[in-house]
Design goal:
Rossmann fold, 2 domains, seven-stranded mixed sheet, alpha/beta, 13 helices, single chain, 16% strand
């Protein structure tokens, strides 16, 4: 299978190739309807360090809002955005992990407030404009150049063998849709992610000032079933938040579970990347999860 040209020969590539051969021919071949592959996005299909891409966009919106409204400038996360100091945001996430959601509620409130009352069409235009001009803060390249070439190849190979490929991510659904079509050839209707609440007003679908759901952890299988109606045969993630999605694949040899391990030093600044994946890395063998080493299994990380 020469299409995985950015993958080095080794256990991970062999596992993928053997699975595809087994799933598409011979006595154990999957019914075409069962050839479903789901992929996390941030950290799995493209870079998410030093900050997730959507957070970069949100910080710019908060800073603009703070400049327009002095009262906002004295509150969080607007003050942090205006100062260009994101430590408050990181501390809010850490506090949540420790059981204190006080600052996280402020953060989520600011997230949904950005789009409240906006039409989905207008939001799509703003996001598309962002992707057209924004650069990765460390690599200083357009975000389209920070997708992971080996994963793009994997999606293409699976598609060529009759797999329907979906993005299933904690990332916000409508923020991902413009980039998944361009970068992965995965259409908007196959993007499953966190979502703002919606309402229909005067001929338009608009966002409300609330989060409908956060698509991470155990929510991922729920959203997979509600949107696809089948267990996936392939699931690919990179963090502990993907555990349940990997668990939800077809059992045994009928399923392929991959965990991308960022043991390299590419494109993230000084941010350690094993953080948030410790449990899955420790449990991978027991859970029949194949760990994909970015350092050892990928010959090329980003598109040439």
């Amino acid at each position: 299978m020469t299409e995985l040209t950015s993958w080095r020969p080794g256990a991970a590539r062999t596992t993928i190739e053997d699975f595809i051969a087994r799933a598409t021919s011979g006595p154990d071949a999957l019914d075409p309807a069962d050839r479903i592959a789901v992929f996390d996005n941030d950290g799995t299909l493209w870079t998410e360090k030093p900050v997730p891409t959507q957070l970069q966009w949100l910080v710019a919106q908060w800073a603009d809002a703070a400049r327009d409204d002095p009262e906002l400038a004295g509150t969080q996360p607007y003050a942090a955005a205006l100062a260009g100091d994101l430590r408050w945001i990181g501390n809010a996430v850490d506090a949540h992990a420790a059981g204190d959601d006080t600052d996280l509620r402020l953060l989520l409130g600011a997230v949904v407030h950005v789009t409240a009352g906006m039409s989905v069409d207008r939001y799509g235009e703003l996001v598309a404009d962002f992707y057209a001009t924004a650069e990765h803060p460390v690599l200083r390249t357009p975000y389209s150049a920070t997708v992971y070439q080996p994963m793009v190849e994997l999606i293409a190979v699976l598609r060529s063998h009759g797999f329907a490929c979906y993005v299933v991510s904690a990332g916000e659904r409508d923020f991902m849709r413009p980039m998944t079509e361009v970068n992965y050839d995965i259409p908007a209707e196959r993007v499953v992610g966190s979502a703002m609440g919606l309402e229909y007003v005067d001929g338009e679908v608009r966002y409300v000032d609330a989060l409908a759901f956060f698509d991470d952890g155990p929510e991922k299988p729920v959203r997979i079933w509600s949107r696809i109606g089948r267990r996936p045969a392939v699931a690919v993630g990179n963090s502990d938040g993907d555990r349940e999605m990997l668990e939800y694949t077809l059992p045994g040899a009928a399923g392929l579970r991959l965990l991308v391990h960022h043991d390299d030093t590419t494109g993230r600044g000084d941010e350690p990347y094993d953080r948030g994946a410790e449990a899955m890395l420790a449990e991978a063998a027991d859970r029949d999860v194949t760990v994909v080493s970015v350092r050892d299994d990928w010959d090329t990380v980003f598109p040439a």
